[in-house]
Amino acid sequence: MDDAVGTLTRGTAEGGLTTGAVARMLGVAPTTLRSWDRRYGIGPASREGGRHRRWTSADIGLLECMCGLMNAGMPPAEAARAALAAASRDTPARPDEPTSRSRTPSSRTPGASFSTPGASSHAPGALPVGRARRECRGLARAAVRLDAQAMDELLDAAIDKYGLLAAWESVIMPTLHAVGRKWETVGERYVEVEHLLSWHVSSALRRAAARRAPTAGSGVSLLACTPGESHTLALEALAAGLTRQGLPVRMFGAALPVEAMEEAVRRTGPAAVVLWAQSRSTASRALVARVESIEWGVRGARRRPVVLVAGPGWAGQLPSRALHPSGLAEALDVLAAISRR
């Protein structure tokens, strides 16, 4: 931030910053800034030699206002109008007060922003979030811009406002799915968006989990991806949810080898083991049977873990005795009941 302030101060003293410098400072592409200038009139007041853009501190303040409104879920065109209107009034625009031209009957209903569907964005690079909360659309736009600070702020705000479960199901997952659909449509172009968003989601989940220490006396839940499985975010959400309930958890992450899994079960003596498989190729009924057979404890009081299978990879090939929760909410309820026996 200090570097950005220094750059802005020096640039203003020299007659304004270039488009490239402003783009780097805000974390957007130069082509995006030029597009906003053409489409919405959010551009520099002066141009060097009549052509080259030079951005003053006032111009950059207008951009920051627009980006803030977009982070709150406002479509780019609407955010631009609100930012320009706020600048003309010399008062800050509020993300939770859309302009009158964009209001819909449902958005005037108190509390409707929790589930009111939003209009699709046609901005370049927009993710197909469809009918989603405003927080979801804001997170999607921040991800496309590779705006790390905005993603952290939006994720923390969603978890604080709605709770981890609702934030996961209604904000985080729709955005992750939108990234996946975009990646499938345009190929390798959006891999960087997927990787950065996933890392920030993982970080937000860990921050949320760090706020509560586990209470004594509850059984441990052991969470692991099956061998060959690298998708961990759903398990991380489960781990965070358990931790926030004060329930102890051991999260082993991606692709835990079979032998390591057996050793971890014997050493921790968990009340439950959750095996995540994203694809059918990583879901193994033999592995479930092997984990279910592990015993520990003294002779005459031997114990075995309850095994839960989770993830789409188990569809159509569920092990006979293993539990299969339908989603995060059910998994949290089942594991809480097992842990507190």
Summarize the structure.
The protein contains 13 helices and 6 strands. It has 341 residues and is of the alpha/beta class. The longest helix has 23 residues, at 164-186.
- Rg, rounded, reads 24 Å
- Could you tell me the mean pLDDT? 76
Are there runs of 5+ residues with pLDDT below 50, and where?
A: 1-14, 91-132
Number of strands: 6
Strand content: 5-15%
Shape: elongated
Spatial arrangement of strands, main beta sheet:
4-3-5-6
Task: Tell me the number of helical segments per DSSP (H or I, 4 or more residues long).
Answer: 13
Helix content: 40-55%
Q: End-to-end span in angstroms?
A: 50 Å
Largest beta-sheet details: 4 strands, parallel
Order of helices and strands: HHHEEHHHHHHEHEHEHEH
What would you call the quaternary organization? single chain
User: Pairing-aware structural class of the strands and helices?
Assistant: alpha/beta
